[in-house]
Amino acid sequence: MKLEKSTRESGDRLITKTDTEGVISEAMRSLISPYMQNKFACGEACKGIYMIVHFPKQSLFFIFSILFPMLLASQTIDTIVVTATRSSIPLNQVSAPITVIDREQIDLSLAKDLSQILRFEAGLEIGRNGGPGQTTSIFMRGTESNHVLVLIDGVRINPGTIGGAALQNISPEIIERIEIVKGARSSLYGTDAIGGVINVITKKVNSSSINTSVGYGSFNNRTALMDLGYANQSSELGVTINSNQTDGYAIRTDSDTKRGYENLTSNAYYKQKFSSSDIAMRYWRSEGKVEYLDFFLSPLDQDYLNESTAFEINNVISDQFKSKILLSHIKDDIKQNQSTDYVTSKRNVFDAQLDFSIEKHNIAAGIYISDEEAASFAWGSGYTEDTRSEEFFIQDSIIEGKHRVFIATRYIDHETFGDEIVWNAEYGFDLNDRISFSGSSGSGFRAPDATDRFGFGGNINLLPEESNDIQLSASFKKNDNSSYKFEIFDTQISNLIEYDMNANKMQNIGRASMKGMQIGYQYTDDIYVFRADVINQRAKNDITNSDLLRRADQSLTLNISRKFNENIFGLSLLASGERKDFGVTLPGYAIVNLTAKLKVTSNLSINAQIENITDKDYQTASNYRMQGASVFIDLTYNWQ
């Protein structure tokens, strides 16, 4: 059978075109079908959250009798972050909205990939074409999935093809912490950072140790981990190898065929310290196979490879000056096993930065040079495109008493799109020890990817997408343990890229806006951690006044953990409102996960997770079934 009609819908760039056997090329599917969505949905605005979660009363009473007493006592420790300003800075001095997820939270979650961690963070929405390893996208405060820049230790891993990083292939076992900065950050990181930045900080070595673990759970999910570390006064060496395999489940609502996933992740790290400098080498590799169903529900599979290599030199020149040089290489590969189709992206980067302090100013300036190659072969034709970008940035962080100021600008000389200047400006004010206010504004841009320009319906005359945003926040620290935060945001995007059905090619024809507010409460002490956030937003097409696809107007996230001596119990809740999809409205849903970490001996621990305890049937993409109730148990042994 031959399908006569071809469609291309922008957003995450769906192109569906079949060959003479009627089978969609999977390499191209992986390149452009993460979401099968249009940037602009039609229809009425989402009606909000209308969800009732039914638990047995006894279960609710038991859970909250254990966890909820935390509303009564914490100490906060100054956390140092790097993503918000490209330099180390205490978290409480950052004026932009930022979230940090630490290793303890990651351990307790028993998540199998990065997206399973991020979905319980307010303002982040995950869309997935079904189960483990399936194409996954992230929306940050309503912006597009290719508007979120993902870094691993400061190295950009977004490919030069569809733009969105492969979140489903990033193993939590390599992660030390995750820093999430919301809002435009193109002045610090260049293209793609319109919605925000997610920086995955991998594990570092503090002491010599050997950790191993094995796990088993629903859907014949098997995991194995070996984590080796060696450290002395002058050097650090770490190696992590993690295997994750599952038979999966039936990912489509219109098929009973199960689709599995295999992943092998390797991460290596070496650091050598000298009297006033250090060098570090890092290598991350994620490879495996993912099974899926094509447009005609035929079972197919593909091999994938995600890889990042980095060499870093840090030098303390004097009390006022220090420098950093980062050389990196990334590779993103997909090969379809039922055809010769493929898609690949490679990038070499030179990133140099000089920091210097003068009185109250902490100034950083640097250069960024990127050489990128994107290639694809599908439907009997392909392309290879090289792109070079040369950039210069400068920024200043000023702290004067109760006042905090951050300004940054970046000049970009893009081989294809010419000159671009982007900026950020932020101001924070501490009224007293408990009340703080901050405001930030910035511009961002995204250069069209290779598929936009050379794929099916590509247009070499496209302009970059551009944005301007404003974010205001107020925080109140009730005591040393609890705090409240209120944020409002407004993002405007112009030159939005969308497929023009009349011209049969990609065009800059759209404008979009994302507006909303977020209210959060946090409580921490030596026993309890409690975080709750509510967000109300609308992401819409300003031309048609219709909602953007697969983004809910309202959502609630709740994360609770409680320690019992050396044991930890956790509860995570995600409630999301209805959202538009192609021709349908997906209903709202609420899911609850329970987790536990039990210390059996000083060396042995048992970790357990019950996912979706109410067995809620829900979708984040139309016709793709998300995971129902499931159980996973992990045994970890420390050989130190």
Provide structural commentary.
- The structure is a single chain.
- It is built from six helices and 36 strands.
- The protein is globular, with a radius of gyration of 24 Å.
- The strands form six sheets. It has a 22-stranded antiparallel barrel. A five-stranded mixed sheet has the order 5-10-11-8-9.
- It starts with 6 loop residues before the first strand and ends with a strand.
- With 640 residues, it is mainly beta.
Itemize the secondary structure elements and their pairings.
Blueprint: E1 7-9, E2 14-16, H1 26-32, H2 57-67, E3 80-81, E4 89-90, E5 98-101, H3 103-109, H4 114-118, E6 124-128, E7 136-140, E8 148-152, E9 155-156, E10 175-182, H5 186-189, E11 196-202, E12 209-217, E13 221-231, E14 235-250, E15 258-273, E16 277-293, E17 299-316, E18 321-336, E19 342-358, E20 361-378, E21 381-400, E22 403-414, E23 418-430, E24 435-446, H6 450-454, E25 465-477, E26 482-500, E27 505-524, E28 528-541, E29 546-547, E30 554-564, E31 567-576, E32 579-581, E33 584-586, E34 589-599, E35 604-611, E36 630-638
Parallel strand pairs: 8-11
Antiparallel strand pairs: 1-2, 3-4, 5-10, 6-7, 8-9, 10-11, 12-13, 12-36, 13-14, 14-15, 15-16, 16-17, 17-18, 18-19, 19-20, 20-21, 21-22, 22-23, 23-24, 24-25, 25-26, 26-27, 27-28, 28-29, 28-30, 30-31, 31-34, 32-33, 34-35, 35-36
